[in-house]
Inverse folding.
């Protein structure tokens, strides 16, 4: 049986096709056209190139990978729309930073004040009183159009979508297959370092891509916010998990998340609201094997 997904274009050729101002102008013109589609003449007029033969040469360099030819017009392919999106998001062209922003919600570990930082496409949230922090990358274009004091909330929503995508099995970097697994201790910024003693036995999630090898690691509470039992539990207490900061659901202590089995690896995560608790037990692949409410 033949492989259903194969390389149709050499990566060097694909990226070389984008290394021209006229070709990028073609992609932008198609993106601005109704339905991302335009005739040859309309596209040439939009780009502003009088030489029909020269314009056709550049258009053909894009056709097949970033542009598709229909009966009487051209349209962006999925790859073309993704390149357009990457340009708008500023993944390769924009930069940005912001002065530290104090956060209203306290550190989930010690209750201390926390601060939001953004620089060099990296968000870092630090606690003034303990070593617990979080860090993750965000393209600068995500924050375009928002005031600086809105950046923490924007970053919160963006991280939620990244975790949701990874938990659904799709790598946010290359669209490869993402594997979910349970890890038996907290991750650190330094691979050679160990987490602080008080967090050493706190289980966490790992999402790893089969294709590019990128790994996302973090708090189990955040990874479970789409689990029906968790959503229903908070809904019954008048809480919409989509409206709360992710820190409200962090389980960064052994009182909230703990290992309950080693062979095979199992973890239990406890959420609380009012006078009720929900305990969710997970297997090695982060699948829910049991969920129980208690007063």
């Amino acid at each position: 049986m033949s492989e259903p997904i194969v390389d149709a274009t050499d990566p060097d050729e694909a990226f070389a096709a984008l290394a021209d101002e006229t070709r990028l102008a073609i992609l932008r013109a198609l993106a601005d056209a109704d339905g991302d589609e335009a005739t040859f003449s309309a596209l040439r007029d939009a780009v502003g190139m009088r030489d029909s033969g020269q314009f056709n040469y550049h258009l053909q360099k894009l056709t097949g990978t970033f542009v598709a030819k229909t009966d009487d017009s051209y349209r962006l392919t999925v790859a073309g729309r993704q390149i357009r999106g990457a340009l708008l998001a500023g993944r390769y062209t924009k930069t940005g930073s912001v002065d530290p922003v104090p956060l209203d919600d306290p550190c989930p570990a010690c209750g201390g004040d926390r601060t939001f930082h953004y620089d060099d496409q990296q968000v870092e949230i630090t606690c003034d009183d303990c070593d617990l922090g979080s860090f993750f990358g965000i393209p600068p274009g995500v924050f375009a159009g928002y005031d600086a004091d809105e950046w923490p909330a924007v970053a919160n929503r963006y991280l939620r979508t990244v975790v949701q995508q990874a938990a659904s099995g799709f790598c946010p970097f290359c669209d490869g297959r993402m594997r979910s697994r349970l890890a038996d201790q907290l991750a650190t910024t330094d691979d050679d370092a160990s987490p602080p003693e008080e967090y050493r036995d706190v289980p966490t999630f790992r999402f790893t891509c089969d294709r590019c090898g990128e790994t996302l690691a973090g708090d189990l509470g955040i990874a479970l916010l789409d689990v029906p039992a968790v959503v229903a539990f908070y809904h019954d207490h008048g809480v919409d998990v989509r409206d709360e900061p992710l820190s409200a659901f962090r389980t960064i202590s052994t009182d909230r998340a703990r290992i309950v089995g080693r062979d095979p690896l199992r973890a239990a995560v406890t959420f609380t609201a009012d006078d009720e608790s929900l305990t969710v037990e997970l297997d090695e692949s982060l699948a829910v094997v049991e969920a129980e409410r208690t007063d």
Remarks:
- The chain is about 25% helix and 25% strand.
- The longest strand covers residues 265-273.
- Residues 151-167 form the longest helix (17 residues).
